[in-house]
Request: fold
Amino acid sequence: MVYPGILPCGTLGLGRRRWLNKMGVLDFAGGTVVHIAAGVSALSLALLLGPRKGFKEKVPMEPGNIPMVALGAGMLWFGWFGFNAGSALTSGGLAASAFVATNISAATAAFVWMMLSWMYRRPSLLGVVTGAVAGLVAITPAAGFVQPIMGIPIGASVAVICYYMMVFRSKTGIDESLDVWAVHGMGGTWGALATGIFCSVAANTVGKNGLIYGNPKQLWIQLIGVVSVWVFAFVMTWVLGKIVNAVIGLRVSPTEESVGLDISQHGERAYGGRLR
Reply:
């Protein structure tokens, strides 16, 4: 039997017969095995690869097309409903609850991110959609284990966490251009821990009560799951990256990097017009 909200597969054991599942780690739609793993792997590779040529210098590295970013974020937001609500594996109350929780978290995170941006300079469309994605990431492991209203504290908190993690990453000089670690890695980390705080059997009888419902043990179980995935993803990505670098290399030549990967690697330019 596959229980609603328990993934039937998982690298480190969030499937039916894996050790993290046996321990009681909750992950409704893959926030741990997808987002933490992706974010930590991105950090590992960014450290292994090193910064781009011209990074932290007076070389423009702004996003290429903000309207396309917004369009993609909207499509992602819409698709996430299927991702989270669909993890109920059936149509019904659980899927509807996960659907609503997902939307609340994303909207809350987008709003809080906008407010943070306004505090320091000015709000931006890029910031709003980044906040929305952070909210979607954070609610992913919790969507079917929490009451929908819990999307508010989960979304608000993840916006603050990811915003300042991006600031921290920038100050360290680590060149991780899409901030996958700051948004997905740290957002997924918070989401997994938040599941242990806000989950309740009232939302899902297959789940458990969390910290605020008198069961602090669940938070510790979630923490063990988070640490396990962090270590596994970072170390394995580093090892695989080292192997790839030794066999075929990870970086292009300085000349190819200066010309641009669109031309040097693909033989065509993403956007027409003359180079400046």
Q: What stands out?
A: The chain has ten helices and no strands. Confidence is low (pLDDT under 50) at residues 1-12. The longest helix spans residues 217-247. The radius of gyration is 20 Å.
